Amino acid sequence: MLFGGPGAGKGTQARLLSEELGIPHISSGELLRALGVHRELMSRGELVPDDVVTELVFTRLEQPDAAQGAILEGFPRTLTQAQALDRWLDEHGGAIRRALYLDVPADELVRRLVARGQESGRGDDRATVAARRLAVFEDRLPLVVQHYADRGLLQVVDGARPIEEVHRQILEAL
Ligand code: AMP
Questions:
Q1: Is pTM beyond 0.85 here?
Q2: How far is the CA of 157 from the centre of ligand 1 (A)?
Q3: pLDDT tens profile 137-173
Q4: Which domains does the chain have, with CATH numbers?
């Protein structure tokens, strides 16, 4: 599992890791964008309701290609989601190998989000929305990080380093 702030490089690193390990990359944000649900909430940088996200991610995890494992990216984002994932894994005989936290300072996240918004046209990367996404992340994620720290699963990776170096750190952490 990979988490970190908006713009921390979760998607980039999850794709690299997926190639390296040969297991699918499951992004809650991409699942939501593909379905086109809760566009309005997402465009404001707010979180989508926990039950919607958990249902989507669990359905995806039940696909045969995820039977040998998967890289979860951007999920869980709340303690409720983390607890739901624990229950799901208990029921399905799964376990979390590592919770990798991509640590990037807030000012660098803002810089990256604004650059990505200009390049990709992703509406939720506009400066005002980016600030809101960052605030939501800073509000919710500490409890999730603590949840995995308490279980000895947390590994912090310096996400401000160049892409290849972050990738190497992640491989070492695994
Ligand atoms: P991302 O692609 O991970 O940056 O997610 C884009 C947007 O999708 C977020 O700003 C949220 O609105 C929504 N989203 C993605 N993952 C979650 C999640 N685990 N819980 C709630 N909302 C989510």
A1: yes
A2: 21
A3: 999 999 999 999 999 999 999 999 999 999 999 999 9
A4: 2-173 (3.40.50.300)
